[in-house]
Amino acid sequence: MNFVRFAVRRLLEMAATLLGASFVVFGAMYLAPGNPASFLLGGRSASPAALAAIDRQYHLNDPFIEQYARWLGNILHGDFGRSIEYRTDVSHLLSSRLPTTLLLVGMALVVVVLLGLALGWAGAVRGGATDSAILVGTTFAIGTPAFVAAILLQGFLAVELGWFPSSGSGSGDGIAAMLWHLTLPAIALALYLVGMLARVTRSAMLEQLTSEHVAVARSRGIPERHVISRHVFRNALGAVLTTAGLIVSSLLVCTVLVETAFSVGGVGQLLELSSTTKDFPVVQAISLIIVALFMTVNLIIDLLLPVVDPRITLGTRATG
């Protein structure tokens, strides 16, 4: 029953937050310098009659609240509006590009989880030279922004050595081609987060290694591999899982830079291009989707934490 109440309360909080975010996202258009009609015209001059026609078509003369209510109502019915730059429905633009971005983020997330957990585990358990090498490597990873990693990987592995494609997503050549084209972007996207997750995992496991319940387990003669997996790593997962929200938000934000560097043609690159051309409907739709995804991930994390670590109750987060 507590689970149901907590889930319902969080869903209501998400709805309220999304409503507030939608207001901010829509209102941001009015903070941009210039008249929206000038962006619609692309800098071309127009007669007063033409400007009036644009104002009527896009309801630019309506009160702000009325425009917001109309836009929000359309969003609730799945209508994100029409792109100013591409002259097509925003929903069509997103549906054609979203699979590429989701695949890229998914590949990067796999790299982050597998390498981050493995390096953190090895550093905490093995110690010595292994731990020192991992600390040096993760320091380098954390200090390398995604766009710098993208440039380095693209210049060396793609252009210099020719091992990977330097641009594009390979979306027209099947899933195998897409995986091959997105390998370098996924590594560039994951590098910083691998270092961060490895550091968090290492710290959480080192803390558990010195805890009383681990000493008791060892005194009972439990094999060391079981002590590490069942008593150290499992209890460290609560602290590790709390970083998932930061990992997902970083992936969503950095994909804009990485997709642009590799000309992937996903939602991230679309957001960058639409921001440059002041294509407000596209920017508003993508921004709102990112907020919704981030809140959904955080809800899932809160629901999973008590399952991973029974010491945590619903509504609380592990402190490490």
TrEMBL record:
Membrane association type: Multi-pass membrane protein
Keywords per UniProt: Cell membrane, Membrane, Transmembrane, Transmembrane helix, Transport
The UniProt record lists the keyword Transcription regulation: no
Source organism, top-level taxon: Bacteria
Pfam families attached to this UniProt entry: BPD_transp_1, BPD_transp_1_N
PROSITE patterns: ABC_TM1
Entry's transmembrane regions: 12-32, 102-122, 134-157, 177-198, 236-262, 282-305
Protein's UniProt keywords contain Membrane: yes
Listed GO biological process terms: transmembrane transport
This protein's GO CC annotations: plasma membrane
Entry-linked SUPFAM superfamilies: MetI-like (SSF161098)
Domain named ABC transmembrane type-1: residues: 98-301
Subcellular location: Cell membrane
Primary site of residence: membrane
Family note: Belongs to the binding-protein-dependent transport system permease family.
Protein's recorded name: Putative dipeptide-transport integral membrane protein ABC transporter DppB
Source species of the chain: Embleya hyalina
